[in-house]
Amino acid sequence: xPAFATMESGFQLNQVTNGPIHDLGKVVTMEGxxxxxxxxNRRRFLKTTAAAGAALVSAESLRAADPAKPAxxxxxxxxxxxxxxxxxxxxxxxxxxxxxxxxxxxxIRYIDTSESYENTKAESAIGQALERTGMRKEIxxxxxNSKGHATGDAAVKVYEQRLHESLERLKTDYVDCYYIxxxxxxxxxxxxxxxxxxxxxxLKKQGKIRFCGLSCxxxxxxxxxxxxxxxxxxDQAMIKYNFRDxxxxxxxxxxxxxxxxxxxxxxxxxxxxxxxxxxxxxxxMQALKDKGFKKEVAAIKTVWMDTRMHVVVSEMTNFxxxxxxxxxxxxxxxxxxxxxxxxxRKTTAHLYCHGCGDLCETAAKGVPVSTVxxxxxxxxxxxxxxxxxxxxxxxxxVARSLAEANLDAAQAACxxxxxxxxxxxxxxxQMA
Length: 432
What we know:
The protein is 43% helix and 12% strand. It is built from 17 helices and eleven strands.
């Protein structure tokens, strides 16, 4: 169990940003896959990226500040035995190839992407950066299968074709790890499916992938992670994990046991969605700000305190994000910072969807509450309005039939006291 196991779990409705502990300036750092803030800020960032280049702290200047420390510390990624940076670059938001180059110059050597990110544009931008820098062999590169979770006899052909298209965009002949992306509880049988295993083993034999992995933030994450640990052919897993996802006496005890099992199986463990958000609750943050505490970086450093976790993947969308996260990777969380983060967790636990959909969704009878609230977070906090609408509208009709659903029962079933009725209705108004 992690050293900070007194904290309770949490999958928040709202996303926040990363920044240095004592810098209270506005930052917009995001977290791992399918991740996150306002579209206006991003558009402004894309317009000013080139002009802001001089503000970036390079790897050389970071080392000059403290030559004894590498720009980003390295860890051994489980049974892959690969040395990778403990901070990874997430890429599910718009960015230019030049920004990837800046990240590489800052010492990051782990890049996470997917065929679905920005409708394949993320892979293309990364490919351009790797081609320009000639640094492909220095980078641990992950991409994901998002568009075809094939099983059985069809798996070999589907996975090979999807990967082939990703490799073309990435301008490389292999990736270090290939994921089944966004796997759900309904797909847990994939780990024992001989067709899926054969598909990934075939890609390994061809030299197109080195390792096999998965990403997941499903309500059945504990069961999925345990199944991955047991199957033998999965090498690493990227999971939703933050300072709220530890130690609570409920569903997330199961998550802790699953992480223990995965750790004992020596899976490489990568954390996404590492933030405990408060961007829409400035009143809740003021007391911490008055103490000079920037909890966003503390949240990401808290994940690193759990020695079972190897890498944190963060969506860094501007130069401040990049500089501050690199700096955060070098220093441990202080006792004071840990205490303030714990105080914040306690006072805001009721504001976030903790992802335990098996409780409220049984009561709701049809509406996938935790999924809808995740899409609401994409819409309201991440600024991904079009994507959120598309995801919501793609749900089956029964999932959006609020009149027939017992939302009052779902709200009563929520152990964290969330206003489920209001939130689901708000999601429907904005995304239907």
